Amino acid sequence: MGLTHCMKRPAEILYNRLVWPRLPNKSKCINSFGIRFTRNYTSEQVNLIKHLRERTSAPMKEVKSALVACDWDIEAAQNELRKRGVALASKKFSRTAAEGFLALAQDEKKAILVELNCETDFVARNEIFQHLALCLAKSALVIEGSSQASAAIPVSPESLEDLKINFDHPKLTGEKTVQNAITEVAVMTGENVKLGGGFAISAPSYGVISTYLHTSPMPGIGRIAGLLSLEVEDKDAPLDAVQRVGSQIAMHLVAAKPLFLSKEDVTSDALGNERDILRSQAEKTGKTLMAIDKMVEGRLRKYYEEVVLLEQKFIVNDSVNITKVLANLSQEIGSTVKIRNFLRVEVGEGAKRLEDASGTEPLSQTA
Predict the structure, then answer these.
(1) pTM of the entire structure?
(2) Domain Translation elongation factor EFTs/EF1B dimerisation spans what residues (predicted)?
């Protein structure tokens, strides 16, 4: 047995050097040792492989297999890949998809944010993945409405899955449902791709919607988003300055991570939990009860400055808080300006927030 094993490798080398070069057709050839030789393709077949790969972005192995199975008919092979793709994609749907991008679309009346997830940052940077995300946001903007002015409301993935979109990308063409398009992109990228839902915010009766996207590789795409609606009391007041300051506050949302709009919006649970923590810390100092009460109240003011938007120091100018920024803006345009609502969303948290929010109630301002 040992002798046979030792002689096998030299025999393979001798065969490869003397017999293999003389074979007239190397395609699908297997020698007596069970070694399968690489298929040689004609230049025409190589071009078909290249074109089908460019059309579908499917793995090279699948492209070659489909063409061989369909006798090198590229149209039939493309259909075959789509059939296989549904089965392949379904196997990926159970895998974790926490990467991706947020896509933003807006007009004068509302803005909508849609989250599209994948498994890795590598696929998130894929041009076809980003194109799909933008198309989803733009289409959702057309159909999604809000019955509550200036309210941020959740948009469930189920409400968008059957939406039909007419795609015009070289690798994603024709009218498809959102779910079918997602399946095709999952096949192209080889990862689980899923819709994480979205959020919509409507403009006030008179004012602006301001937005900001952080880590944005292209317009309308980003990893963190800040949105807010600013209401202006006087309908004759100019809006240019409002939009300018609104854009700065939207950037502030991304950096400062506010949890609530005003002190009155802080929930009793959040306030009670923070008060308990602060009191426990103060009691360890061994000071009197009166001193502990003062320490707790002083630290609560610091807590408000950290989590309440109107109390936070402005990131553009930390000598003033957001309340003062709005007061200065109101004086500049000659009309009272108020923040009606705001929204901060980061990739990976959208699905959880949709689970926590009721589909029939406005989404509270949270980071």
Answers:
(1) 0.71
(2) 111-349
